[in-house]
C-alpha cells in the first residue's frame, strides 16, 4: 500500500530544482543571489516562496523560467520539468514543440526535460503552454492601446494555430468570465479597468493556454489590502479548479499562510526552511522563519506579538562563513560560524519539515531543539539588548 502511495506521489512531480546557483557578475564583485537551492513542486501544488527583499526570490523565478539576462548567470545546478502524459489537456501543437530528444530520467524514473538546455523555440513553447509567468507590476504590463479581449486573442493566435477566430473569441470571453470580468468588457482598454480588474485580466492571460505551472512574483503588491485578498482567493480557487501548480513569491509570509500548501523561506540566496503552511504557522523551526512570521500582522489566528528581526541581511558579495543568518540569530552558537547548515528534517515527528539550522542537529546541539517559547524569548532579549 505504502509503496503505491509513494510511487503515485513521485509520479506527480512537475518541477525539480537541484542545487541551483545564480550569480550577478557586477563590476564591484559577484553577487551570489541564489545559492545551492533545491526543491520539488508537484502537479496542482501551491508553493509560496517568502523572504526579505533582496534574498533572491525573483532571481530564482527568473532562473527557472530562463528569463535571466546578463550580468546574471546560472553557475550550477539543474531544473527538470516533467511534461504531462497524453491524457493531459495541452494542445498537440504545443506538446510537439517540447524536445523529445535528449530527455533525462528524473529522480522518479520518469522522462524529464532539462529546462536549462532548451533552445529558444523550445523555450517559447515551454513558457506559454507549460509555464505562465506573472511578474511584479504585471498589471501595468498590459498593452495600453489594445483591448483586453484582443490581448487574450493574440496569445491564442500565437500559440493555438488550431483555433479559428470564433473559437478564440469564445475562449477569450470564457477566460474573462473565469476571472470575474463580464463579457461586455471584452473590448475595454486597460485604462478603462480598475487596478483589480487589470490584475484579473493578467491572470486570464496567464491561464489562456492551460499551463501546468504559474509563477507569480509579488503580483498583488500594487493593490489595496481588500482587493489583494480577493485576487489571492481567485488565484487559489482557479489553481485548485484546474489542478495548476503555483509558485507564488512575496516578502509577506502572512499572505502565504492561507494561500499555499507548502512554504519555502529564503535567506541570503539560500532556502532555509521548507514545510507545509500549517507546520510553518504552528511551529516555524528556523529562527529566521520565526522572526519573519512575527514581522507581519496576521488577519487570522491568535494575536501574535509583532517583533521584527534586528539587523539586516548580509551583502551577497561577501557572505559570512557558516550560517548566513548567524549574525542576526538570537540563538547562534559556535558551530554556526564554522559549518554551513543543510536543509534536513527539523524534528522526528515531521520529516517533511526541513530547516537549515544547527539547532536541530544533535551533532551540534546534543540537548535537542529549542522550543518555540525559547526562540521567542531569545528574540525578545535580542531586541531589548539592541534597544539598550
Ligand atoms: N542586475 C543586478 N546586478 C547586480 N546585483 C543584482 C542585480 N539584480 C539583482 N541583484 C541582487 O541580487 C540579489 C537578489 O535579488 P532579487 O531581486 O532576486 O531578490 P528578491 O528577494 O526578489 O527581492 P525583492 O523582494 O526586493 O524583489 C539582491 O541582492 C540584488 O541586489
UniProtKB/TrEMBL annotation:
Q: Where in the cell is it found?
A: Cell membrane
Q: Name one GO molecular function term.
A: ATP hydrolysis activity
List the keywords (alphabetical). ATP-binding, Cell membrane, Membrane, Nucleotide-binding, Transport
Main location (coarse class): membrane
Q: Which regions span the lipid bilayer?
A: none
Protein topology in the membrane? Peripheral membrane protein
Instruction: Quote the SUPFAM superfamilies the UniProt record gives.
Output: P-loop containing nucleoside triphosphate hydrolases
- Gene Ontology cellular-component terms listed: plasma membrane
Report the Pfam families cross-referenced here.
ABC_tran (PF00005), oligo_HPY (PF08352)
This chain's protein is named Oligopeptide/dipeptide ABC transporter, ATPase subunit
Which organism encodes this protein? Ktedonobacter racemifer DSM 44963
Amino acid at each position: 500500500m505504502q509503496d503505491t502511495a509513494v510511487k503515485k506521489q513521485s509520479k506527480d512531480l512537475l518541477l525539480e530544482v537541484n542545487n541551483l546557483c545564480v550569480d550577478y557578475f557586477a563590476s564591484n564583485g559577484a553577487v551570489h543571489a541564489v545559492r545551492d537551492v533545491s526543491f520539488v513542486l508537484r502537479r496542482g501544488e501551491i508553493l509560496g516562496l517568502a523572504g526579505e527583499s533582496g534574498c533572491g526570490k525573483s532571481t530564482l523565478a527568473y532562473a527557472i523560467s530562463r528569463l535571466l539576462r546578463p550580468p546574471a548567470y546560472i553557475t550550477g545546478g539543474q531544473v527538470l520539468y516533467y511534461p504531462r502524459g497524453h491524457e493531459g489537456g495541452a494542445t498537440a501543437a504545443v506538446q510537439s514543440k517540447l524536445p523529445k530528444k535528449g530527455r533525462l530520467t528524473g529522480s522518479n524514473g520518469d522522462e524529464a526535460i532539462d529546462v536549462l538546455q532548451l533552445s529558444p523555440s523550445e523555450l517559447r513553447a515551454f513558457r506559454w503552454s507549460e509555464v505562465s509567468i506573472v511578474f511584479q507590476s504585471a498589471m501595468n504590463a498590459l498593452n495600453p492601446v489594445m483591448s483586453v479581449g484582443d490581448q487574450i486573442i493574440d496569445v491564442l493566435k500565437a500559440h493555438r494555430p488550431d483555433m479559428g477566430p470564433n473559437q478564440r473569441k469564445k475562449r477569450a470571453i470564457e477566460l474573462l468570465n473565469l476571472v470575474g470580468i463580464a463579457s461586455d468588457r471584452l473590448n475595454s482598454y486597460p485604462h478603462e479597468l480598475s487596478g483589480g480588474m487589470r490584475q484579473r485580466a493578467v491572470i486570464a492571460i496567464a491561464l489562456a493556454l492551460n499551463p501546468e505551472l504559474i509563477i507569480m512574483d509579488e503580483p498583488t503588491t500594487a493593490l489595496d489590502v481588500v482587493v489583494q485578498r480577493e485576487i489571492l482567493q481567485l488565484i487559489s480557487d482557479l489553481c485548485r479548479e484546474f489542478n495548476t501548480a503555483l509558485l507564488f513569491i512575496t516578502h509577506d509570509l502572512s499572505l502565504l499562510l492561507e494561500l499555499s500548501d507548502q512554504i519555502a523561506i529564503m535567506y541570503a540566496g539560500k532556502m532555509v526552511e521548507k514545510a507545509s503552511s500549517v507546520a510553518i504557522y504552528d511551529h516555524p523551526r528556523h529562527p529566521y522563519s520565526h522572526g519573519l512570521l512575527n514581522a507581519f500582522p496576521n488577519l487570522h489566528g491568535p494575536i501574535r506579538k509583532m517583533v521584527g528581526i534586528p539587523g539586516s541581511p548580509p551583502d551577497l558579495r561577501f557572505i559570512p562563513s557558516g550560517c548566513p543568518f548567524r549574525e542576526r540569530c538570537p540563538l547562534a552558537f559556535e558551530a554556526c560560524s564554522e559549518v554551513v547548515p543543510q536543509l534536513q528534517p527539523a524534528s522526528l515527528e515531521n520529516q517533511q519539515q526541513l530547516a537549515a539550522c544547527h539547532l536541530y542537529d544533535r551533532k551540534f546541539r546534543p540537548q535537542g531543539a529549542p522550543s518555540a517559547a525559547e526562540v521567542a524569548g531569545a528574540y525578545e532579549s535580542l531586541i531589548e539588548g539592541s534597544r539598550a
